[in-house]
Amino acid sequence: MKRLLLIDTTxxxxxxxxxxxxxxxxxxxxxxxxxxxxxxxxxxFKESFHVLEGDIKYGNRFKKLISLPKFIFHCLRVAKKENxxxxxxxxxxxxxxxxxxxxxxxxxxxxxxxxxxxxxSHNKLILNVLNFIEKFCLRYTSLxxxxxxxxxxxxxxKINNVVFENYPSKNISNxxxxxxxxxxxxxxxxxxxxxxxxxxxxxxxxxxxxLLSVIEKLDxxxxxxxxxxxxxxxxxxxxxxxxxxxxxxxxxxxxxDLAYIYEQTDYVWAAYPTLDYNSxxxxxxxxxxxxxxxxxxxxxxxxxxxxxxxxxxxxxxVDEYNIExxxxxxxxxxxxxxxxxxxxxxxxxxxxxxxEIKLFEALTLHGLLYDC
Length: 372
Description:
By secondary structure, this protein is an alpha/beta fold. The chain contains 14 helices and 13 strands. The protein folds into 2 domains: 3-167 and 352-365, Rossmann fold (3-Layer(aba) Sandwich); 171-340, Rossmann fold (3-Layer(aba) Sandwich), CATH 3.40.50. The strands form 2 sheets. A 7-stranded parallel sheet has the order 3-2-1-4-5-6-7, sandwiched between helices. A 6-stranded parallel sheet has the order 10-9-8-11-12-13, with helices on both faces. The protein starts with a strand and ends in a 7-residue tail after the last helix.
């Protein structure tokens, strides 16, 4: 069995990478090289996980950049120790690590690149450099996996690729549990306000600030499920604006909690900053989860996701930078009882496990798997 190293620059590894890990374990001997950049140490993990510890804080791009050589060296040591045949690089920064391991350690190592997000930067010079590095590394990549159907047009058509989006696991649709914080949710809901939920990594301070301005003006509650680099910022903003009675934090959740979270939610916020063009072309987990659980999503009108959804009455399309317009959009939806209407699905339900065969076929086609 081939030995595969999955590289992820976060800890715990992101949910998409973990789903790939579970799928790839069916065909490979999978090891993981990850980077814990938070204050808490990764004290409990299996032998197949190799985690570099370092308190440089998530969201600090400069510290991450200057510490990247240390993580690359960590990955190189893991690759040598485990005698790796194939590297699965999650995200473009992991692709850099994979290329350098191939260059320094073993020329015949194959690289699979999961294009989870596009390289982005507000600085055009830095962005051009990142795009050049990614394009150069792609020359040495055996297969690129696009996490969004809209990424394909942005890349050279000659590269080997497959589109494999953030399909939900079938497990989350089959399981429904009442989480330990479920009683708190039920108690808050006694005020009969509609619920807008933020589900996932808490980031994008400017969007969070706008969202709080919206919550302040409407008779709704905001439920925040998850953590991230902007969680403390959002908590402080909530306190400073005296919104503690309308904004409620539930912390990190498990995948099996999603069915419960969406059942308690009337509108799920998925309008991210489209000044970052990655948000324009990406397809978020919320796109599939909202469709699966029949919960009204709120998308940015500038995204590719939103282009074909304008005719669906139970999808809200907003300009995330125009606070007054968002207030009016949601207010109109509340008055019309949009979240109470029968939900019209905008796409057939697709599950990760059912799409695995497409992944294995692509790996086989490009010489990365022989026993499919």
